[in-house]
Amino acid sequence: MKKPILYPVPATLRFGTGVCDLRDRKWVLVPAGSSDTFKRHARDFASAIAGAFAHGIETASGTPSAGRPFVTLSPDPEIGAEAHAIAVTPRGITLSAGGEAGFFYGLGTIRQLVDQCGGLIPAMTIQDRPDFANRGVMLDVSRCKVPTMESLYSYIDRLALLRINQLQLYIEHTFAFAAHEAVWHDASPFTAAEIQAIDAYCRDRYIQLVPNLNSFGHVERWLRHPEYRHLAECPDGFDYPWGGKSTHGSTLKPCKESLEFLDGLYAEYLPNFTSPYFNIGCDETWELGKGASKADCEKRGTTRVYMDFLTQIHRLAKRHGRTAMFWGDIILHEPKLIPELPKGIIAKVWGYEATHPFEKNCPEFAKAGVPFYVCPGTSSWGALVGRTTNALGNLANSAEHGLKNGAIGYLITDWGDGGHHQYLPTSWMGIAAGAAYSWSFKANKSADVAAGLDRLIFKDAAGVTGQLFADMGRVQDLGKWNPCNSSPFHQMANFDMASEPAWLKEVPAAVLTKYEKRFLQLRDMIPQARPAACDGELVKAEAANGIALALHGIHRVQAYRNPRMNRTPLRHELQDIIMQHEELWLARNRRGGLRESSGNLIWRLNALQ
What pLDDT score does 47 carry? Predict the structure, then answer.
């Protein structure tokens, strides 16, 4: 009998001798003191596997007078709440766990065994526990996609399968603050009632919904409006560090008035969450010291001014009953200040390239005794089709150095920069890999993530869908150009065709041909995919349009290099992509933000008239 393959791979898995025939079993025995929520999960588990057993499967908390148990759940208070052990013997399966979350994860493993083996399961023992106590995903819902409640619930269900236990929704302006409609009017924001419902839905799946609201930098969605202009460090705009100019501010000026503004937001926002934590953001305060705080920064130093205002925001969050988390990029400009961070604050050490120096940054917080998370990314944003090699390297690098330096958490970030043109399935590669690495890095660093996706997310028995998305993200490896925080295809799809960019020399014609040939091969794979998940056909359509947009970028470069080429077919190609993009958007997301996202594509039509 072929040995089953589990995802995430357990920390310890030992096969015994022989196969256990459990097909005549009847019961899942649940501890009598279990919560109603867990009893419902146990019933769902029993219903899902019942078809593999002669008499079906039912749950009970007492000792049944007839029929033998398939799984017996046994509390073990000596191990952690999420830790669990599984023993498969001819007498049945025993699942021991320290808490309901551990039972929940253990039943998920047993479900995988039944899916692959039916009731004939190899004898085995499993010992499983997480490397990181806090394993989270942060979903960008501000640039530009705000998911529908239905799609968000489905997303949360899948995170639970991957043993994610924290979720953050990255908020700039997409919460419906009662007195601030000017900011969120066109964004289809979450309401207070919706946040409360999401919080409850997460808790039922052993996930903590951590509030997230950027509170210093990245406040441009507010500061662009005249009502809030007075709170900006640079109300008339500023020069971006990478070139170009913003016409409005993005950073709050560090003052009492800004704190009072934040206090009002926190009072309305935070009570909708049950988590004790709060991500206050505070990253990329690009223009700090160039406007209202210029004199103070020149006198005391920009990082010191940043530190002082961060401390005040931390105190404000504490008054609202929360432990603040913040992005650690700015304080790393002057690591000597890290020991002065307020006690209890949690740093988020982030970086999104495979070579990001986590080995250098993590020890700065560790030696100062500041608790911290490592925060890699999915490498999906600004990429259209993902960056698989970079994503796996970034996610593994952060896990390795987070563990070495005592990180208390691991947060997988999934951003939407530039119009959020990547589709959700593109992000699952990074989410699934990061979930496995943060659960048990040693056991999972060589795991087959694509196969795990097909088993848990796409439910593709043909084993095509997960590999399709993995391979889409590897096409850029056929060339040598790997732009930072982006992919060649995103750069090419955004090419204005007006003048020759410096990167054009990085993509010779022969490499473009390789890219194009490989994408066409992958497009031909789509009909072979058999995703049986509820969104299976949508996933295939999203793969097709992601590939189409990447191919369009290639075609733009080819047209630029051949001025005689008729651009009309290229214009029609992009018009079709835009129409399909809008349909796919509304299949998972609210309408707010779509105009902005499509606008970034429509603008690319100008060069094709």
Answer: 97
Q: What is the pLDDT of residue 242?
A: 87
pLDDT, position 243? 87
Q: For residue 422, what are its two tokens?
A: 């990547």
Mapped onto helix, strand or coil, the DSSP state of residue 20 is strand
What is the value of pTM for the model shown?
0.97
Q: Within 13 Å, how many C-alpha atoms sit on residue 540's CB side?
A: 16
Q: Under 8 Å CB-to-CB from 223, ≥6 apart: which residues? A: 229, 231, 232, 235, 248, 249, 250, 252
Structure tokens at 603: 């603008």
Closest CA to 478 of 429, 422, 446, 519: 519
Q: Which helix (H) or strand (E) holds 502?
A: none
The Cα–Cα gap between 77 and 396 comes to 31
Task: Determine the Cα–Cα distance for residues 336 and 533; give it in Å rounded to an integer.
Answer: 50
Rounded to an integer, what distance in angstroms lies between the CA atom of residue 594 and that of residue 545?
A: 16
Pick 55 or 280 by higher pLDDT: 280
Q: Is the pLDDT of residue 143 over 90?
A: yes
Q: What is the three-class DSSP state of 37?
A: helix
Give the whole-angstrom CA distance, residue 249 versus residue 259.
17
Averaged pLDDT, 284-299: 97
Q: Say yes or no to pLDDT of 2 above 90.
A: no
Which positions ≥6 away from 595 have C-beta within 8 Å? 186
Q: Which residue has the tokens 């949360």?
A: 156
| Structure tokens belonging to residue 609 | 């008239």
How many Å is the Cα radius of gyration of the chain? 25
DSSP state of 383: T
The residues, any chain, with a CB within 8 Å of residue 499's CB and separated by 6 or more, are none
Over residues 236-276, the pLDDT tens digits come to 999 998 888 999 999 999 999 999 999 999 999 999 999 99
1 pLDDT higher than 80: no
Whats the size of the chain, residue-wise?
A: 609
Distances (CA, A) of 340 to 47, 308, 335, 409: 54, 10, 10, 21
The rounded distance, in Å, linking the Cα atoms of 29 and 308 is 55
Is there a contact between 493 and 604 (Cβ–Cβ < 8 Å)? yes
232 pLDDT higher than 80: yes
Cβ within 8 Å of residue 48, ≥6 positions away: 111
CA–CA distances in Å: residue 559 to residues 290, 480, 554, 563 = 42, 22, 9, 6
Identify which of 589, 569, 608 has the alpha carbon closest to the alpha carbon of residue 144: 589
